[in-house]
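User: I want to check something. If I give you two sequences, will you return the structure for each one separately, not as a complex?

Assistant: Yes, each is folded on its own. Here is the first sequence with its structure:
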Amino acid sequence: MTKKERYQGVLAWFQANMPHADSELNFSSPFELLVAVMLSAQCTDKRVNAVTPRLFAAFPTPERLANSSADEVYEYIKSVSYPNSKARHLVEMARQLVENFGSAVPSDLDALQSLQGVGRKTANVVAAVAFGKNTMPVDTHVFRVANRIGLTHTTTPLATERELVKHIPENLLSRAHHWFLLHGRYVCIARKPHCDQCGITNYCLFFTRKK
């Protein structure tokens, strides 16, 4: 099977079986999405969704968050991973939004990455989900699934992103991110993938090799 055939088969299956795929984070604005994605680093969406209602109620705007302290924010997010550093990043990020962007979350990737605590993956997620940009965020799930299937043979998230962008039609990029993420979260899990529940085994290099 050629790489082109593998991509075509995988994408066709997801289009037919998961036509609608969205973020599992709860948010109602680009600002809330940005905060939620920052909190989700090395943390489950379920845990983030458990803490954000109170957090968003207490800090509904960038101004309110910017005028708080890391200690104050920590009390709302202490059950997520790395709460101390995330609290500091959130307050500084909000201050930068207020001072540099008129309190509005920018849609430009470079501008997003200029914010404290916002890396490439987070910027790509916000650009795709909040602003409909055709980006390919690569988290641990996307990285694992793409390499397992055989869509990529890469050692870094950036290399994976570039390879996927090269082979996936632009209009499918952000949806493909969610396809691979959700597939990795529920089917192609890290330690023991549920190959018996997988619809793309015909195209999967990992499955072919283990038979």
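And separately, the second sequence with its own structure:
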Amino acid sequence: MRKIHSYLLVILLSTMFFSCKESTFHEGRFFAGGVYATADQLNDGKIVYLEYCVSCHGFEGDGNGVSAKGLFPPPRNFKLGIYKFGNVVAGELPHDKTLHKIIRHGLNGTPMLQWDMSKEQVYNVIQYIKTFAPKAWEGKGKKLGEELVVSKDPYGPSHKSLAVQKGKEVYHLIAQCQSCHRAYASKKELNQISLKVNNEEMTEFDEDMYKIKLQESEHGYKVLPPDFTFHSLRSVGTMKEKPGIKDPERIALNDLYLRLLAGAGGAAMPSWKDVLQDNEIWAVAYYVRYLQTFTKDQGKRKKFLDSIEKN
């Protein structure tokens, strides 16, 4: 009986091995942005995917791999053709180099790890992943989103305090970020900001303004916006291929600026491009970065949150 079981196991493993090697693609395909992937590249991408990605993202690319249960956030469903961190306006198709960075450097606070692959492996698996969402990706006429770039920082280290204060005002009054995240200012401070910006008192306050609110998403599950004093930010400080930039603080601020500019595809986080002024986006980036300092000291965080909620 043991010999029979061993024989069946060998057959099963052999079948799995040869099915991975079998050519699924017999011709190349055109993808958005004029990218052409040969059949050999797509077949190699499938092999890479089955080795590194399938356990979480699943054989069908739907995010239902054997390791997906219990993971939060769930693995991305590639069949939707929606990407949260694309460095393009939310909802548009990202460029390959952005997907390359995510694969190589991972995403903070998620099961998406850093993968040590060759450039060729990364390129090929990206092209293979696109085949899960042919309506979104395939075709010579499909376009990528406009790649967003970091503008000149109007503040810099010497005006950091000014930027943080300006960011607090934009966050709470102009962008109303607390409607999804939470407020980080006392009612007294909010009233002072309203008097300064709108020349009127703030007399009514949302009873849930100090709570984070679950948001609907296009990814098939609800998303929890981060508490900036507690959670790590998934796309901030992870894409470390920054030519000529070695300062971690500058990298983080640039990443925050880009995330605010782009938004998060398929989530409740909108793109603030052409909605806020550029200096306002930079100010919010500085303010969020300031709030992140509390993640390093939870005692200090508790005192900060207690003080604003009591006033």
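Because they were folded independently, the notes below concern the second chain alone. The chain has two domains: 19-137, 157-310. The longest strand covers residues 29-31.
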